[in-house]
Amino acid sequence: MVYESESVWEFEMAKNVTFGVGAAAELGGVVREFDADSVLVVTDPGVSEAGVVDEATESLAPDDYTVFDEVEPEPSVEVFDRALEEAAAVDPDFIVGLGGGSSMDVAKTTSVVHEHGGDILDYVAPPTGGGRDVPGPGVPTACLPTTAGTGSETSPVSVISLPEEDLKVGISSRHQRPDVALVDPGLTVSLPPGPTASSGMDALSHAIEAYVTRRYDAKPAPQDRTDRPDYNGRSVLTDQLARTAIEHIGDGLRDAVNNGEDVEARRNMSLGSLMAGAAFTNAGLGATHAIAMAAGAVHHTPHGVTIALTLPEVIRFNATSAFDRYAEIAELLGEDTSGLSDDEAAEAAAVAVEKLAADVGIEGGLSSLGIGPDDVDHLAERSNALQRLLVGNPRRVTREDLEGIIERSL
Ligand SMILES: [Fe+2]
After folding, report:
1. Are the beta carbons of 359 and 196 closer than 8 angstroms?
2. Which of 30, 170, 237, 349 pairs with 342 at a CA distance of 20 to 30 A?
3. Which intervals hold domain Fe-containing alcohol dehydrogenase-like C-terminal (predicted)?
């Protein structure tokens, strides 16, 4: 058969994006639009204690909502089960995810599993789960991010930890994309410097990996549109989003960490994170995320910090396959690449990322997270198993290549 390459790209995000300081106050209006009078708010204790739940629910009638605030970082399947039990008790006609990626992920999955029934693991891909497709939309959902961030407010994915098996699995379905993303930079003002730094570096990596990932037409055409992968490659649209995201994050992250109340910096970060999320959830990711997901599962390392410490060596490894793109990234991060050779310009991107991470307090290599030389082999093996991420990496990457990247990142 003659090879036929893909000639089409698709793009999806939340049905409605409402952005700006004050957007959270429109939650009541959104809930009225959906004619809902029983709302389940899914959040975590930190957000609740910081007063952010009160702030975000001010526009809701007190009798109309119930708060479930038991979400933990890197939530386990038990957390998802408890949220589902709460939904069974409340029978909500609207669900709100308020917090970082964890709370938003739990909200999105509760929305579809409450609507369609079954267990959480039924919807996870085999061999861990039952591989059941989400058959249709869930309970209408709005997500309000309090970090900048994971991009979960527009994404179709939720990540579930199985700590006893040292595994992280996911549910991916277009029906998990929230109906409304209410992105209010004001909700991120109380986020402490550490999480501001790590979530911001995660957002930067989403934009960078989406910008260099393989192009949509560098794969075979699908038999049917339903066979097109969720990560369908970079396109002119994801490129624009990624470029603007890199610029905004480069402009905003140091100031947002240094002074949380710098609203202009927070606005840059929220916008950058939103755009990076919209870019990568359509285009795809690469080796940085494969290594960080594996390290998160095996060593329980925090996602954003692991990402920040791995990204520079992935850039150096990938440079030969995307010199021009990395040179542009260096420029977007404020480096002057005029007069530099291709590899010097790509190196400038790696150095710019390292400098940014160090300036916001993230340095010391993966060894600072407790990963040592003896762990490299197993971590490379586990990273190599994440082919759905590696398939988008601009340079073909083998298990031995992953070992090298991890070793140089220690
Ligand atoms: Fe990430």
Report:
1. no
2. 237
3. 237-409
